[in-house]
Amino acid sequence: MKKIIGILALSILFAACKYEDGPKLSLRTKKHRAVNTWHIDKVFENGMDKTTDYKNGFVNYQIDLKSDNTYELKYRPFNLSDYLETGNWAFSNDKVFINFTPKDSKSPGQWKILRLTETETWVIQNINGKDVELRMKD
Question: What phi, psi does 67 have (nearest 5°)?
Fold first, then answer.
């Protein structure tokens, strides 16, 4: 009986790893880990490091995912003016994606989650046919 319980426990632990880059196990809920103010750390476009280009184009980029499932995205495009977008966010049913619904007429967006911890998140989205991976920290 103990062997069956142990096998069952290990199965649950390995099934808990939903994201390619981890974490393998977390005692915090996915929502608890997602709710944060995130800043760009690194950016890869089709696998190539484009961090400098994105940090110059999206100066002071930060997205604040709030516990009431609203978000606020702000940055300074090429350091010229302020950009602000607000709306609602939600996990997809399988919790592999975060879906964004802006309050204004902008198109909805979606991130595929690669890694989700309390201090960093890695997501990928397709922008104009390019896979853009954002690695963000709090």
Answer: -65, -20
Q: Is residue 117 within 8 Å of residue 22, measured between CB atoms? A: yes
DSSP secondary structure letter of residue 108:
P
pLDDT of residue 4: 55
- CA 35 to CA 65: how far, in whole Å? 5
Mean predicted confidence (pLDDT) in 50-65: 97
Which domains occur in the chain, in start order? 2-137 (2.40.128.540)
Please state, rounded to an integer, the average pLDDT across all residues of the chain. 87
Task: Read off φ and ψ for residue 108, nearest 5 degrees.
Answer: -60, 155
C-alpha dihedral, 53 to 82 to 115 to 96, nearest 10°: -120
**Reported pTM:** 0.82
